[in-house]
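Weekly puzzle thread! Below is a chain. First person to post its structure in token form gets bragging rights.
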Amino acid sequence: MIVYLKDKDSQNWSLIGKTEVVRNNLNPDFSTPVECDYYFEREQFVKFTVNDSDGSSNDFIGQVETTVGKLIGASAQTFLSDLTLPGHKQSRGKIIIRTDSLN
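Winning reply:
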């Protein structure tokens, strides 16, 4: 999984982190955390992309765009959403994102 944060000034997506590759698993549970700063009262857009990597190819499964505020404000800080292709509404799977605050 690859995580991007949108720069509010340029509106470009910047890479903020990647998880490990989980092989041969239809329901991977990524353990590598991705950290980002959260600024209360500022809308921060975040995008998660998921690929199927089998060594010889890297197939795009889908993505979800949301805000850091929605992740932090989700019930039990667990955000659930559909993965979709850009410009499409059909679900290509689910993604569960768990957040935690660091001090």
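Puzzle host: Confirmed. Bonus trivia for everyone else. Residues 32 and 101 are 15 Å apart (CA to CA).
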